[in-house]
Amino acid sequence: MKMKLLGALGTMALALTASTAYAEYPERPINMVIPYGAGGATDISARTIAEPLGTAVGKPLVMSNVTGAGGATGSVVVQNAKPDGYTMLFARVGSHSVSPAMKDTLPYTLDDFRFVTVYEINPVACAVSPSSGINSMDELIAKVNEGGVSYSSSGVGSLLHLAGAMVLNEYGVEDPLTAATHIPQKGGGEAATAVLNGTATFICTNTSALASFVANGQLKPILVTTAEPVAGFDAPTSADEGKPALEKLVGWTGIAGPADLPDDVAAKWGEWMGQAAGDQNFVDQMTKRGSVINVMTPEDANTFIQEQYESFRALVDELGMRIKG
Amino acid sequence: MSMIDSLLAGLSLVSNVYAFLALFGGIIIGVIGGAIPGMSATMAVALTLPFTFALQPITGILLLLGVYKGGIFGGSIPAILIKTPGTPASSATILDGYPLAEKGEAGRALGMALWASCTADLISNLALILFAGWLASFALSFGPPEFFALILFSLTIIAGVSGDSLLRGALSALMGLLLATIGLDLVYGTNRFTFGSPNMMGGLNFIAVLIGLFAIPEIIAMVWNPTAHIGKTRKLGKNWVTFEDYKNSFKSIVRGSFIGVFLGSIPGIGAAPSAFLSYSEARRKSPNKKNFGKGEIEGVAAAEAGNNGVAGATLIPLLALGVPGDVITAIILGAFMIHGLQPGPMMFVLNVDIIYGLFIGLIVSSIFLFLVGSVAIRGFKYVADVPKRILIPGVLVLCIFGVFAVNNNIFDVGVMFAMGWLGYFMMRNSIPAAPFLIAFILGPLLEDNFRQSMLMSGTDFTILFRGPITWFFWAATIITIIAIVRSTIAGRVKTTPQ
Predict the structure, then answer these.
(1) Which Pfam families does UniProt cross-reference here (chain B) (predicted)?
(2) Using CB atoms, which residue from B42, B140, B321 is nearest to A38?
(3) I want to staple B308 with a disulfide (CB 3.0 to 4.6 A). Which of B111, B117, B217, B493 is the partner?
């Protein structure tokens, strides 16, 4: 009886795989892994695009948050998934460019993934508390040289962690790791709060995470790392400051599959993303949160991430920030 | 604009049928979501979020608040009926709620949970409306050193939930602390006790540990001895909560509500520690101290007041500062932003109508919660009548499903079973599980805040005593420890044979 059942199941499984090979992709719902918790920047971004994207795909997208270890736990799920295009990942700057550049302990590298798109860019800004008396980057650097300056981040290997060190480095601070103290927090919200309550002196993070604090006058922006100014942020840009290298310092969200994802699947995703990002509702909601919608083709996305990764990696090696064990 | 004007502007915003329908619907979704183990209030709120995009801002936010409040209460239903907390905040409710259900007084426990929840909810909402500005500025004076002192004090709860033997309680807490160290080191980003497994890098999943520790041992015990329960009546019972019960527990409910308001207004603590703190305070003050943990109705009241007291207060840092206190308020913050609203001091100037609209909605939500909760209890009461031999396999399926659904990770289910065997071992040796859980929640917070303090000061320990708030909690800790030592010694003298 048992054997019969197993046999039947086996035949069914075979039939299913056989039909997968011939049928048009996608013929069943697609699992979308969000490697960060509910309510975070990645989660909201993913769930916002899921609506128009689901329409473009024509099959349901099953969104699941697999959280832990700064995005690593969820990324590993997709790394080890079958490269059939039915398990895809919402990749983020932290999990797929800063962490790989910084952590030798990570269970994956960039080569384990194939990106099908990057659809959202988040400018980065640095801010201080108004009560700190700091009004510009130069004043901050002067304070750093006096000593006792610290910056907060959402954890080791996050964009915020690297951003703080990178900005100080660009402004000519020698050995930024010892000149300023990095105080990691448990998440992005906590990192901003740490500057509000005086635990840390400054923070460099996505403008969307700072927008409401800046609008309310609780935090004072002193630098925007894009070349273009950001609405609502009355601060010099990297172009104003003559630091073009800082333009690499942006957040992004993209979609990736396992490394061996077939070309036709990647091409399909390129098509769907073009349709989804044309949705006015989606664009409105994302721009309201301070994102720039910029859908990249699979090729552009790979180049963009690789370049950011290389420049971060060079910086990590220069400053000796690598985490080894 | 005077307060009356603001109030009227707010009233005009919420005085349409949709706002109240959304709130009411939200509470229903929340109670059901909270009552499903593993689903948790957080997930219910996250799943509702996309539906608010198309709604008016105030309607959408009231919907989410309804889910939040309903979810925190809903979690107590499975905690009492099947010893499985539906949401982490209701783990303290198990301590006395489940023993009451075993005695055939599930209805009374559920009723008390509802009354305590609604009372605490109301107090919490009033605190938000009246003291938001003041409490928010107080919350901002909490840096890592203040947190460290507060959490150190909170660890004294362990003595309150250790049951008869403080030593066994401490052993349980030590195990909790040990397992909480698994995962990434906060400051160095290195792996701790992960044994090379990516699954362990995120640490042990909290809900898997929670369900494994409380629900699974019951199931293992049932497998071990399938006929142990026969002859015991386990029914919802005719006993309903009486006004007398409510009056007797009223002090604990109010105390728990204020503990909830206090801990809720400080970002980063959450509802579970508040429920435990409220419970242990109620036990300490109660003349029926001995009965706590064996089915004391006041214990249920205190735990539920403690966790629902947080629900309104977490909105204080959110509205007044724009700072989310926990994951749920982070999601609600996302909803504000999607509607182009930026919570913070300026919102009280620019969107005062929305603020007052929310306040009106919140007050009404306590009443709605009472209505929905009463119906839900009647609906779920049949669970208590299901024979144990049928109920227990169902609970097992629910636990596996719930734990898997949290992270869609089969590894978590393994963690749950491993914790289940540990819990069973602890149960057989009368080692209480609650201290384990408290240590598991608070241990990492204690460590992180300690290390952040050390980073701030350059390893100067005096930062831990930097201001009145730290002094207060250090003094409270010392006084509590002295009290525990004295009562333990007194207890030993009493029990020593003459």
Answers:
(1) TctA
(2) B42
(3) B117
Name A10's Cβ contacts closer than 8 Å, sequence gap at least 6: none
Q: What is the interface size between A and B, counted as CB pairs within 8 Å? A: 162
Residue of B nearest to A99 (CA): B189
Q: B297-313 vs B271-285: helix axis angle to the nearest 10?
A: 140
Could you give the CA distance from residue B206 to residue B221 in angstroms, rounded to a whole number? 23
Q: Chain B residue with minimal CA distance to A199?
A: B143
Take residue B163 and report the two structure tokens written for it. 């049951």
Is A69 in contact with B198 (Cβ distance < 8 A)? yes
Residue that is last in its domain, among A248, A275, A297: A248
CB–CB of B338 and A285 under 8 A? yes
Cis peptide before A26 (omega within 30 of 0): yes
How many domains are contained in chain A?
2
At B120-130, the pLDDT tens digits run 999 999 999 88
* Phi, psi angles (nearest 5°) of residue A62: -95, 110
Contact of B407 with chain A, judged by CB distance below 8 Å, is answered with yes
Which of B295-304, B373-382, B420-429 is predicted with the least confidence, judged by mean pLDDT? B373-382
| A198-246: pLDDT as tens digits | 999 999 999 988 888 898 899 999 999 999 999 889 999 999 999 999 9
H helical segments located in A81-201: 93, 99-102, 137-146, 159-170, 176-179, 188-196
Report yes or no on whether pTM surpasses 0.90. no
Instruction: Tell me the chain B residues in contact with residue A64 when contact means C-beta distances shorter than 8 Å.
Output: 407-408
C-alpha A143/C-alpha A147 separation (Å) is 6
- B172 near A CB under 8 A: no
Of the candidates B456, B449, B437, the one whose C-alpha atom is nearest the C-alpha of residue B161 is: B437
Q: Which two structure tokens, joined as six digits, stand for A226? A: 């894009």
Contact, B133 vs B416, CB < 8 A? Answer: no
The domain of A110 spans 30-122+250-319
- Chain B residues lying within 8 Å of A37, measured CB to CB: 327
Q: List CB contacts (< 8 A) between B43 and chain A.
A: 38
Looking at residue A70, what DSSP letter applies?
A: G
Report yes or no: A222 and A76 within 8 Å, Cβ to Cβ.
Answer: no
For strand A180-184 and strand A149-153, is the pairing parallel, antiparallel, or unpaired? Answer: parallel
Q: Of A203, A226, A248, which residue is a domain's last? A: A248
Contact B345 A217 (CB under 8 A): yes
CATH label of the domain that carries residue A131:
3.40.190.10
